[in-house]
Design a protein that fits this description.
With about 200 residues, the chain is α+β, with helices and mostly antiparallel strands. It has six helices and 14 strands. The N terminus is likely disordered.
């Protein structure tokens, strides 16, 4: 007779939280966590190159949008995006808002109207950034462009919403070339995005 030993911890249902409970915990947390309809998931810490690429992109975006006739707000990775349809709160690596930010129920830590979102993809996050996370962002009506920056090699993709269900992608891999961001009408040099980054 075979005896099966079960891990009681593995069988336990994960504790569920309300959005309010998550936000209260996140205000005191040392590490960042995302919220998935009741579940709180700790985010992996970004490596130095990831953080530097994100900072470079943030600076390049701020410089690029400054002379434009419309006002664009460029925000860093501390700003959560709230996907109300899915009850999920996610951290991007950077985002751009046109004119004025809009917040979920006046919570300034939950923005709901990003125009452009930036993610720096690593080996561990690439599948998620390209797949589920992109799909979640696409449920936001204001979201028009998704910029995916590879961490380990020079490659930038800019996915632009042509129609309601159609997204067109531009890809650039040469450091001396620029990637066109069609939602803003500006181009960013890959050399600026990858400044000080050494590829092995």
């Amino acid at each position: 007779m075979t005896t099966f030993i079960t891990d009681q911890k593995a069988l336990k249902t994960p504790k569920m939280f309300t959005l309010g409970e998550y936000l209260a915990r996140e205000e005191k947390a040392i590490n960042k966590h995302e919220f998935y309809n009741g579940q709180i998931v700790r985010m992996p810490g970004g490596k130095f190159s990831h953080n530097e690429i994100a900072s470079n992109m943030l600076n390049a975006l701020r410089i690029a949008v400054k002379p434009l006739p419309k006002k664009y707000r460029v925000i860093n990775s501390d700003q959560k995006i709230y996907i109300a349809a899915e009850n999920k709160a996610l951290y991007p690596d950077a985002l751009v808002v046109c004119e004025r930010p809009e917040f979920w129920e006046d919570r300034e830590d939950l923005i709901v109207n990003p125009l452009l979102i930036v993610e720096v993809a690593s080996k561990s996050t690439r599948m998620y950034d390209r797949g589920e996370k992109f799909m979640l962002y696409r449920s936001l009506p204001t979201f028009k462009e998704y910029v995916l920056i590879e961490q380990n090699l020079p490659s930038v993709e800019a996915w632009f919403k042509e129609k309601e269900t159609t997204w067109d992608v531009l890809t650039e891999t040469a450091l001396n070339n620029a990637i066109l961001l069609r939602s803003l009408g500006v181009s960013i040099l890959l050399a600026d995005i990858y400044e000080n980054i050494e590829f092995i």
